[in-house]
Write a structure and sequence with these properties.
The protein is α/β, with parallel strands linked by helices. It has three domains: 1-189, Cobalamin-binding domain (Rossmann fold, 3-Layer(aba) Sandwich), CATH 3.40.50; 194-434, Alpha-Beta Barrel (TIM Barrel), CATH 3.20.20; 571-623. 49% of the residues lie in helices and 12% in strands. It has helices at 35-51, 69-76, 95-107, 117-125, 130-137, 151-160, 186-189, 215-218, 228-238, 258-270, 292-299, 313-318, 329-337, 356-370, 387-395, 420-434, 437-446, 452-469, 496-570, 573-585, 592-623; strands spanning 8-14, 26-29, 55-61, 83-87, 111-115, 141-143, 166-167, 197-200, 203-204, 224-225, 244-247, 277-282, 301-309, 342-349, 374-379, 478-481. Strands 3-1-4-5-6-7 form a six-stranded parallel β-sheet, with helices on both faces. Strand 11 (244-247), helix 10 and strand 12 (277-282) form a beta-alpha-beta unit. The protein is elongated, with a radius of gyration of 36 Å. The N and C termini lie far apart (93 Å). 38% of the residues are buried. The model has no long low-confidence stretch (mean pLDDT 87).
Length: 624
């Protein structure tokens, strides 16, 4: 049978970023698969099916796969079939790497389109910025905004071999309609620690106006939500292969349908035994919504991600984050903890009112009084698409020209109270202090049996990133790799010998740090789980022994009571013998009662002796 060639070949690439030495950041194992890749995989296949077009879709996540365009095209390009390469989910810090990949794919003859928050945010607030205009001139198309309902136009143009230079956002899609659910690619999923953790957004947008946020200018400053029926349908279709979900909503607590979504999950868990769990992002005041925390716990929520951002009220006011009230932080954490739900907070360092000393004080307060189970720290960064970036652009303030530094752990702007070195050092200090042996021991000592291992595993991941790779956990997997030839063009390519020496040193240092990390967590485990479980075991043994002793004493008391009763009854033996003696005195030697009394009296006498012996032994046992 003759093989039918596809009409279109689609390669989706989620790019990584360059490190400070110019090497692409990727790891042997990632942690959580990309929601963007899985979502677009499902949407493109569904759109092509409706169009009646045969497509081949290939996915690559550069956080766990080094992307070499020449090798990719040799592997997947098909003669006579147009190839569309999509650089997807491109954040600002990934933009330089995405541009390098796009140019190489374009030179190899592929059509290239780039989307993500950098493109979408820049076009939304600034229009065609110089770096985007340069991409257009190189023949690379820009895709701004969300993909639902807009992929048919893109695929039609790709089939014709003539992409538009810009695919503008237009109206935001209606999420209540049926949509193609995210589709996991096995070849990519197997490279992650949590390969079958599902990702899904139940809503998009946010009602707040934080000045550092890009969400509201790309997905809207209002809430759009998916149908609860469709969410339930998706969860059912993928169970039991997918049992844990990360709801990627920027703020799920403002989804108008949160109650119905939770109630559907509760029915599935409590009535049908479907052990579904999830984590979600919510705002600080969400715990005050009537029934929200309780229903979330019953629905299977195990962790919430909450943007505290700062303990300084002046900083929150400057960031237009008035919904956060610092005096509610402790109460909020306790509300989630009462339902055994772990709390992961984000904290931004570098707001206008921060100083080195104030940041240190605030981190101490965060650990000792607020007491979240996990924390992610960020350096304030003016991301394109945010109000901060727009205002700084209008004022002409300095911002780094290298988008690779817009990753929230480089100083991409000046700070009024700290030098770049001071700012970075106090940021790194916050990571080291929070993920120290002392603080992690306190956190895990407070954890419930239900939440302990989830917090423990997350702490291992974050401490590994902090102590071993000295990088932000959200771009860190496990065991860093470096491709010699995939180095940023502004750095020279190392010789094989120099590269081998670099990798040897990296491997030795990383191995030693991992060894120390294992010893660190063995110590933490002993001080928390093992100590707690040993104490509980000893208490359980003591309680069992006490219960056994009480059962023995109750049994002995019952025997004593019974024998005492017999003894009292056997006190009649004297009266029996006296009756027999009177019969003998009267000479009634053949009277039947005389012989019956004799036998009965003998038995009573023996019983009385035995009773006295038992009483003595029982009393002796009770006294000892």
């Amino acid at each position: 049978m003759e093989q039918v060639l596809p009409a279109l070949n689609v390669i989706l690439v989620k790019p990584s970023k360059y490190d400070d030495d110019g090497y692409v950041i990727h790891h042997v194992r990632g942690v959580l698969p990309s929601n963007t890749l899985n979502a677009l995989n499902g949407l493109i296949r569904d759109t092509a099916q409706k169009m009646g077009v045969n497509v081949d879709v290939h996915l690559m996540d550069e956080t766990v796969q080094l992307v070499v365009p020449e090798k990719v095209m040799r592997k997947w390009s098909i003669p006579g079939v147009p190839t569309l390469v999509g650089l997807v989910g491109v954040q600002t810090n990934q933009f330089p790497r995405a541009v390098d990949l796009a140019l190489r794919f374009r030179r190899l003859g592929a059509m290239v389109v780039m989307g993500g928050f950098h493109v979408s945010g820049s076009l939304a607030l600034l229009g065609l910025t110089p770096e985007l205009q340069q991409l257009r001139e190189e023949g690379i198309s820009l895709f701004a905004g969300e993909a639902e309902g807009r992929l048919e136009e893109l695929l039609t143009d790709a089939l014709k071999g003539n992409l538009k230079s810009v695919y503008w956002m237009g109206d935001l899609p209606d999420l209540t309609k049926e949509w193609a659910a995210p589709l996991v690619d096995e070849s990519v999923a197997k490279r992650f620690v949590l390969p079958y953790a599902g990702t899904m957004d139940t809503s998009r947008g946010c009602v707040f106006k934080c000045s550092f946020c890009t969400i509201i200018h790309v997905q809207g400053n209002f809430m759009r939500h998916r149908s609860p029926e469709l969410i339930e349908k998706h969860v059912r279709e993928h169970y039991p292969r997918i049992k844990h979900y990360f709801f990627t909503d920027d703020n799920m607590s403002r989804n108008p349908q949160w109650r119905e979504i939770f109630e559907r999950l509760i029915r599935m868990r409590e009535q049908e035994g479907m052990r579904i769990t999830f984590m979600m992002q919510v705002d600080v005041p969400s715990y005050r919504l009537p029934g929200f925390v309780d229903l979330a716990a019953r629905a299977g929520c195990t962790q919430v991600f909450i943007g505290l951002e700062s303990l300084n009220a002046d900083n929150l006011k400057a960031a237009s984050k008035g919904q956060n009230k610092t005096n509610f932080y402790e109460e909020m954490i306790q509300a989630w903890h009462r339902h055994a739900i772990a709390v992961h907070t984000s904290y931004i360092i570098g707001f206008p009112h921060d100083t080195v000393e104030s940041v240190r004080r605030d981190i101490t307060a965060l650990m000792e009084y607020v007491q979240p189970d996990q924390a992610s720290f960020f350096m304030l960064t003016p991301l394109p698409g945010s109000v901060d970036h727009l205002e700084m652009t209008r004022r002409g303030e300095w911002m780094s020209a290298d988008f690779n530094e817009y990753d929230s752990f480089h100083a991409a702007q000046n700070h009024p109270n700290m030098s770049k070195e001071e700012w970075f050092n106090v940021y790194r200090e916050a990571w080291r202090r929070f993920y120290s042996v002392e603080n992690l021991t306190k956190i895990l000592s407070r954890a419930t049996p239900e939440s302990y291992w989830g917090i423990f595993k997350s702490a291992v991941w974050y401490a590994y990133a902090t102590h071993c790779e000295e990088a932000h956990p959200m771009i860190t997997g496990f065991w860093r790799l470096k491709g010699r030839t995939e180095r940023r063009s502004t750095f020279p390519m190392e010789s094989r010998l120099a590269y081998a020496w670099r990798r040897t040193k990296d491997t030795v240092v990383l191995s030693w740090r991992i060894f120390k990390l294992l010893l660190m967590f063995e110590k933490i485990w002993r001080a928390t789980w093992l100590t707690k479980r040993t104490a509980e075991w000893r208490q359980g043994v003591a309680q069992a022994k006490e219960a056994q002793l009480q059962r023995q004493q109750r049994a002995i008391a019952k025997v004593v009571a019974f024998v005492t009763y017999l003894h009292l009854r056997m006190g009649q033996s004297r009266a029996v013998w006296q009756d027999a003696w009177q019969l003998l005195k009267r000479g009634k030697l053949w009277h039947p009662r005389l012989y019956l009394n004799g036998v009965y009296g003998t038995l009573l006498g023996i019983s009385e002796l035995l009773t006295r012996g038992w009483l003595f032994l029982m009393n002796f046992a009770l006294e000892t």
